[in-house]
Specification:
Strand order of the largest sheet: 1-2-3-5-4
Radius of gyration: 19 Å
Structural class: alpha+beta
Number of domains: 2
Order of helices and strands: EHHEEHHEEEEEHHEEEEEEHHE
CATH topology of the largest domain: Phosphatase 2c, domain 1
Distance between the termini: 32 Å
Strand content: 25-35%
CATH superfamily of the largest domain: PPM-type phosphatase domain
CATH architecture of the largest domain: 4-Layer Sandwich
Oligomer: single chain
Largest sheet: 5 strands, antiparallel
Length: 342
């Protein structure tokens, strides 16, 4: 399963944990010693900011090698109160708590990509992406962003995801193992391994393979998507309650998933086709995100990187009583690759 971490910043000791995890991920991604040190600084600053200011904060740490090349993404999710003055907060020397105030300025300078969205009294999302200078960036037709976490108190998530890039086309899997904890994680892992190792490229055939691979586990809700290289259509096949939505402009199209559980019951597995354009947005999520999310929540970040869109949805509509996974994909507009977009 694609490796990722979510650290709940509910104690000052979590700052050191965040730094350690960022160091581990950066090292696994092949960063140089200086790049590892920079990743540790960014993690420390983001976690410290959450510890000092957030009513409830999380730091999500994700390797980027599956999507864009050797890199690390850190997503800071603050459930309140947000920034009093965002512009001032990005200036070195500014502080509202009597510290040196260099934290967010340092994060922005060290990041290859940086973005921030904040709503007063609602919270904020900050994203830092850092890439290894020694590794080649992968030029993809699509951008992917993922935010997720296990149920609080669990060490493993039953929600998982995977992506494959096939000749310019995008294949996406989102899976939710039944329940939570290690047994749900095992079911999700079986689905991910089947998806990643399969030679099939059609959602229905991939789903049928996952259904067989998940036998012997407690089962999972699964959805598979394929977007062609010509970006003209999206194909979808699902069992269970993984939600898939195509958003074009303000219009949303929910994709149809059949009743069933991969590994147990799958009487009907059928592929559906929906229109897709270069302006479309793909949103897939487990039931750890409320199905009642709406376009207005992401309107301010609609043209931001997918990780920002997913993080805003997660912050506003995430449910605390289950694992969660939100995946957002869109056509790769290279204008998004500039740093410091805040």
């Amino acid at each position: 399963m694609s490796l990722s971490y979510c650290v709940a910043i509910d104690d000052p000791s979590r700052v050191a944990e965040s730094r350690r995890l960022a160091t581990d991920v950066a090292r696994l991604e092949g960063f140089s010693e200086q790049e590892i040190s920079n990743a540790a600084i960014v993690a420390s600053e983001l976690a410290s900011n959450l510890s000092k200011h957030a009513k409830r904060g999380e730091l999500h740490i994700l390797p980027l090698s599956r999507c864009e090349g050797a890199g690390i993404e850190m997503v800071s999710v603050d459930h309140g109160p947000g920034f009093t003055n965002l512009s001032d907060s990005m200036i070195d020397g500014h502080s509202s708590t009597g510290t040196s105030g260099t934290g967010l300025g340092a994060v922005r300078r060290l990041s290859d990509q940086f973005d921030v969205h904040s709503v007063r009294d609602s919270g904020s999302v900050l994203i830092s992406r850092m890439f290894s200078r020694a590794a080649e960036r992968k030029q993809r037709n699509f951008e992917i962003g993922v935010v997720g976490r296990p149920l609080r108190g669990e060490t493993a998530s039953g929600d998982g995801w995977a992506v494959r890039f096939e000749g310019g086309s995008l294949l996406v899997l989102v899976v939710d193992g039944l329940g939570h904890g290690l047994m749900a994680n095992a079911a999700a892992n079986a689905a991910v391994e089947s998806f990643e190792n399969s030679k099939e490229t059609g959602p229905e055939l991939l789903l049928r393979g996952i259904h067989q691979a998940a036998r012997g586990t407690r089962g999972a809700a699964v959805a598979v998507v394929r977007i062609g290289s010509d970006a003209g259509e999206v194909r979808f096949a699902g069992l269970g309650n993984i939600s898939g939505v195509v958003m074009t402009g303000t219009r949303t199209q929910s994709m149809v998933s059949h009743y069933g559980t991969a590994g147990h019951e799958g009487r009907i597995m059928r592929e559906f086709v929906y229109p897709w354009s270069r302006e479309s947005l793909l949103v897939m999520h487990s039931d750890g995100l409320s199905a009642n999310w709406n376009y207005e929540a992401i309107r301010p970040v609609r043209h931001s990187m997918p990780s920002m869109i997913g993080a805003v949805l997660y912050k506003e509509f995430g449910r605390d009583r289950d694992d969660a996974c939100v995946l957002v994909g869109k056509y790769n507009d290279r204008s998004q690759l500039s740093s410091g977009s805040a």
